[in-house]
Protein backbone atom coordinates (compact mmCIF):
# COMPACT_ATOMS: atom_id res chain seq x y z
CA UNK A 1 0.00 0.00 0.00
CA UNK A 2 1.42 3.47 -0.77
CA UNK A 3 2.69 5.38 2.23
CA UNK A 4 3.52 8.75 0.76
CA UNK A 5 3.34 10.55 -2.55
CA UNK A 6 6.97 9.70 -3.06
CA UNK A 7 7.89 6.10 -2.34
CA UNK A 8 10.56 6.13 0.44
CA UNK A 9 13.71 4.14 -0.04
CA UNK A 10 13.72 0.96 2.04
CA UNK A 11 16.91 -0.53 3.37
CA UNK A 12 17.01 -3.94 4.95
CA UNK A 13 19.55 -5.10 7.46
CA UNK A 14 19.95 -7.98 9.80
CA UNK A 15 21.45 -7.90 13.27
CA UNK A 16 25.21 -8.37 12.91
CA UNK A 17 28.35 -7.78 14.96
CA UNK A 18 28.08 -4.69 17.14
CA UNK A 19 30.23 -1.72 16.23
CA UNK A 20 33.38 -0.82 18.11
CA UNK A 21 31.49 1.25 20.64
CA UNK A 22 29.38 -1.75 21.65
CA UNK A 23 32.00 -4.48 21.23
CA UNK A 24 32.79 -4.65 24.93
CA UNK A 25 29.32 -5.79 25.85
CA UNK A 26 28.80 -9.31 27.09
CA UNK A 27 27.47 -11.56 24.27
CA UNK A 28 23.82 -12.29 24.73
CA UNK A 29 22.37 -15.76 24.92
CA UNK A 30 21.05 -17.22 21.68
CA UNK A 31 17.49 -16.36 20.91
CA UNK A 32 14.71 -18.88 20.62
CA UNK A 33 11.18 -18.78 19.40
CA UNK A 34 9.94 -18.86 23.02
CA UNK A 35 7.64 -16.07 24.26
CA UNK A 36 9.28 -12.72 24.85
CA UNK A 37 11.36 -12.91 28.06
CA UNK A 38 11.04 -10.34 30.78
CA UNK A 39 13.10 -7.16 30.84
CA UNK A 40 16.85 -7.47 31.22
CA UNK A 41 18.21 -6.28 34.55
CA UNK A 42 19.85 -2.88 34.58
CA UNK A 43 22.94 -2.19 36.73
CA UNK A 44 21.70 1.35 37.24
CA UNK A 45 18.00 1.12 38.16
CA UNK A 46 16.01 4.31 38.27
CA UNK A 47 15.63 5.86 41.75
CA UNK A 48 12.87 3.93 43.53
CA UNK A 49 9.49 5.63 43.60
CA UNK A 50 7.76 6.11 46.89
CA UNK A 51 4.78 4.20 45.50
CA UNK A 52 6.83 1.53 43.76
CA UNK A 53 5.85 -2.04 44.54
CA UNK A 54 9.01 -3.58 43.10
CA UNK A 55 12.71 -3.30 43.93
CA UNK A 56 13.59 -1.45 40.72
CA UNK A 57 12.26 -0.14 37.44
CA UNK A 58 12.65 -2.35 34.34
CA UNK A 59 15.47 -1.01 32.20
CA UNK A 60 14.61 1.63 29.66
CA UNK A 61 16.01 0.89 26.16
CA UNK A 62 19.62 1.97 26.02
CA UNK A 63 20.45 1.20 29.68
CA UNK A 64 24.02 -0.08 30.27
CA UNK A 65 24.52 -3.87 30.45
CA UNK A 66 25.57 -5.71 33.62
CA UNK A 67 29.33 -5.77 34.15
CA UNK A 68 30.16 -3.37 31.33
CA UNK A 69 30.64 0.41 31.63
CA UNK A 70 28.56 2.47 29.22
CA UNK A 71 30.28 3.28 25.95
CA UNK A 72 31.37 6.92 25.61
CA UNK A 73 28.86 9.00 23.75
CA UNK A 74 29.05 12.32 22.03
CA UNK A 75 27.51 14.92 24.35
CA UNK A 76 24.25 16.21 22.99
CA UNK A 77 23.05 19.77 23.36
CA UNK A 78 20.19 20.21 25.85
CA UNK A 79 16.88 19.71 24.16
CA UNK A 80 13.40 20.85 24.91
CA UNK A 81 10.30 18.82 24.06
CA UNK A 82 9.83 21.01 20.99
CA UNK A 83 13.42 20.38 19.87
CA UNK A 84 13.27 16.60 20.31
CA UNK A 85 9.91 16.37 18.56
CA UNK A 86 11.23 16.73 15.04
CA UNK A 87 8.56 17.46 12.43
CA UNK A 88 7.45 14.42 10.49
CA UNK A 89 8.66 14.26 6.91
CA UNK A 90 7.49 12.24 3.95
CA UNK A 91 11.12 11.61 3.04
CA UNK A 92 11.94 9.62 6.17
CA UNK A 93 13.87 6.48 5.25
CA UNK A 94 12.51 3.05 6.15
CA UNK A 95 14.90 0.35 7.35
CA UNK A 96 13.82 -3.24 7.93
CA UNK A 97 15.61 -5.29 10.60
CA UNK A 98 14.86 -9.02 10.59
CA UNK A 99 13.21 -10.35 13.75
CA UNK A 100 10.46 -12.70 14.87
CA UNK A 101 7.47 -11.74 16.99
CA UNK A 102 9.34 -13.16 19.99
CA UNK A 103 12.56 -11.22 19.39
CA UNK A 104 11.28 -7.96 17.86
CA UNK A 105 11.39 -5.99 21.14
CA UNK A 106 14.86 -7.30 22.00
CA UNK A 107 16.14 -6.40 18.53
CA UNK A 108 14.57 -2.95 18.84
CA UNK A 109 16.32 -2.44 22.20
CA UNK A 110 19.65 -3.41 20.63
CA UNK A 111 19.03 -0.96 17.80
CA UNK A 112 18.37 1.80 20.34
CA UNK A 113 21.72 0.95 21.97
CA UNK A 114 23.49 1.38 18.62
CA UNK A 115 21.79 4.69 17.95
CA UNK A 116 22.82 6.04 21.36
CA UNK A 117 26.37 4.78 20.83
CA UNK A 118 26.43 6.75 17.58
CA UNK A 119 25.62 9.92 19.50
CA UNK A 120 21.84 10.16 19.14
CA UNK A 121 20.10 11.85 22.07
CA UNK A 122 17.58 9.66 23.95
CA UNK A 123 14.88 12.27 23.42
CA UNK A 124 15.14 11.78 19.64
CA UNK A 125 13.90 8.17 19.81
CA UNK A 126 10.37 6.74 20.01
CA UNK A 127 9.83 2.96 20.26
CA UNK A 128 6.42 1.53 19.33
CA UNK A 129 5.15 -2.06 19.67
CA UNK A 130 2.28 -3.76 17.82
CA UNK A 131 1.77 -6.61 20.28
CA UNK A 132 2.50 -6.62 23.99
CA UNK A 133 3.64 -3.34 25.55
CA UNK A 134 7.37 -2.87 26.07
CA UNK A 135 8.28 -4.00 29.64
CA UNK A 136 9.33 -0.46 30.55
CA UNK A 137 5.97 0.94 29.40
CA UNK A 138 4.11 -1.75 31.36
CA UNK A 139 5.94 -0.79 34.52
CA UNK A 140 5.51 2.96 34.11
CA UNK A 141 1.80 2.62 33.33
CA UNK A 142 1.36 0.86 36.67
CA UNK A 143 1.87 4.29 38.30
CA UNK A 144 -0.87 5.89 36.23
CA UNK A 145 -1.22 7.28 32.73
CA UNK A 146 -0.59 10.88 33.75
CA UNK A 147 2.91 10.14 35.06
CA UNK A 148 3.60 7.88 32.09
CA UNK A 149 2.63 10.39 29.38
CA UNK A 150 4.34 13.23 31.23
CA UNK A 151 7.67 11.55 30.42
CA UNK A 152 6.86 11.89 26.72
CA UNK A 153 6.16 15.60 27.04
CA UNK A 154 9.39 16.10 29.00
CA UNK A 155 11.26 14.69 25.98
CA UNK A 156 14.40 13.70 27.91
CA UNK A 157 14.50 9.93 27.33
CA UNK A 158 13.63 7.18 24.90
CA UNK A 159 9.86 6.72 25.11
CA UNK A 160 8.02 3.43 24.55
CA UNK A 161 4.35 3.19 23.63
CA UNK A 162 1.88 0.86 21.94
CA UNK A 163 1.20 1.49 18.27
CA UNK A 164 -2.52 1.83 19.01
CA UNK A 165 -1.70 5.00 21.00
CA UNK A 166 0.58 6.51 18.34
CA UNK A 167 -1.82 9.43 17.87
CA UNK A 168 -0.96 10.58 21.40
CA UNK A 169 2.79 10.55 20.77
CA UNK A 170 4.86 13.45 19.48
CA UNK A 171 6.98 13.24 16.31
CA UNK A 172 10.60 12.30 16.94
CA UNK A 173 13.67 12.14 14.73
CA UNK A 174 13.84 8.33 14.80
CA UNK A 175 10.93 5.95 15.32
CA UNK A 176 11.33 2.21 15.87
CA UNK A 177 8.37 -0.11 15.28
CA UNK A 178 8.72 -3.55 16.87
CA UNK A 179 6.24 -5.89 15.16
CA UNK A 180 5.96 -8.26 18.12
CA UNK A 181 2.40 -9.39 17.56
CA UNK A 182 -0.99 -8.15 16.48
CA UNK A 183 -2.93 -8.93 13.34
CA UNK A 184 -1.85 -8.05 9.81
CA UNK A 185 -4.43 -5.22 9.61
CA UNK A 186 -3.13 -3.81 12.92
CA UNK A 187 0.49 -3.99 11.74
CA UNK A 188 -0.48 -2.51 8.37
CA UNK A 189 -2.14 0.45 10.13
CA UNK A 190 0.83 0.91 12.47
CA UNK A 191 3.37 1.28 9.63
CA UNK A 192 2.07 4.52 8.06
CA UNK A 193 1.21 5.92 11.49
CA UNK A 194 4.77 5.32 12.71
CA UNK A 195 6.21 6.76 9.49
CA UNK A 196 4.19 9.93 10.01
CA UNK A 197 5.90 10.41 13.40
CA UNK A 198 9.43 9.83 12.04
CA UNK A 199 11.44 12.92 11.14
CA UNK A 200 14.45 11.16 9.57
CA UNK A 201 14.14 7.40 9.88
CA UNK A 202 11.64 4.63 10.60
CA UNK A 203 13.25 1.34 11.69
CA UNK A 204 10.87 -1.62 11.55
CA UNK A 205 11.86 -4.79 13.43
CA UNK A 206 9.93 -7.84 12.26
CA UNK A 207 9.56 -10.58 9.66
CA UNK A 208 10.81 -9.06 6.36
CA UNK A 209 8.53 -11.19 4.17
CA UNK A 210 5.47 -10.18 6.15
CA UNK A 211 6.51 -6.53 6.28
CA UNK A 212 7.12 -6.30 2.53
CA UNK A 213 3.62 -7.61 1.93
CA UNK A 214 2.19 -5.01 4.30
CA UNK A 215 4.26 -2.20 2.79
Automatic annotation (TrEMBL):
Comp. bias regions, Low complexity: 76-88
Biased composition (Pro residues): 36-48
Region of interest (Disordered), ranges: 1-88
Name of the molecule in the record: Uncharacterized protein
Record organism: Streptomyces albiaxialis
Amino acid sequence: MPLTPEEPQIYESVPGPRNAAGAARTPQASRTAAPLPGPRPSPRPAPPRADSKGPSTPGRPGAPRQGNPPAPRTPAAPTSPADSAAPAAATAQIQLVAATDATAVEIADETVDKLLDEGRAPGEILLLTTGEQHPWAQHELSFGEDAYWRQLSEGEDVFCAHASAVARTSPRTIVLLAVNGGTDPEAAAALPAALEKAGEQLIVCGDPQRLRALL
